[in-house]
């Protein structure tokens, strides 16, 4: 579990990366209602989706615990984490 705000930011960056992977797969495979996906495509998408979902759940739990432990407003912590996670990393500007 995250013990610092920076650890929460890193978790949120992992969520963003996992969501980007799901988006990339959907773009590459097209809508499943158009041309049905192969078993391999379906498995790849489901694996990526599960990873995103699990990471999102973990970051939500970590933000809640961090806010509670620090007697902080959860919404403020979440907003700060999302803002910092969306900022470019040093050297990646």
Task: Summarize the structure in words.
With 93 residues, this protein is mainly alpha-helical. The protein has one domain. The protein contains three helices and no strands. It has helices at 5-29, 39-69, 74-86. Helix 2 (39-69) packs across helix 3.
What is Rg? 16 Å
User: Helicity level, as a percent range?
Assistant: over 70%
The secondary-structure class comes to mainly alpha
Terminal Cα separation, in Å?
29 Å
The overall pLDDT average reads: 93
Topology readout:
Blueprint (H helix, E strand, L loop, with lengths): L4 H25 L9 H31 L4 H13 L7
Can you give me a brief rundown of this structure?
The chain has one domain (5-86). It contains three helices and no strands. It has helices at 5-29, 39-69, 74-86.
Descriptors:
single chain, 93 residues, mainly alpha, elongated, PE domain-containing protein
């Amino acid at each position: 579990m995250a013990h610092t705000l920076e650890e929460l930011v890193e978790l949120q960056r992992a969520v963003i990366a996992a969501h980007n992977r799901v988006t990339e797969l959907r773009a590459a495979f097209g809508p499943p209602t158009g041309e049905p996906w192969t078993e391999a495509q379906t498995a790849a998408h489901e694996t990526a989706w599960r990873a995103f979902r699990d990471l999102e759940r973990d970051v939500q739990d970590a933000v809640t615990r961090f806010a509670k432990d620090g007697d902080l407003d959860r919404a403020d912590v979440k907003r700060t984490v999302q803002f910092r996670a969306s900022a470019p990393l040093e050297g990646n500007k």
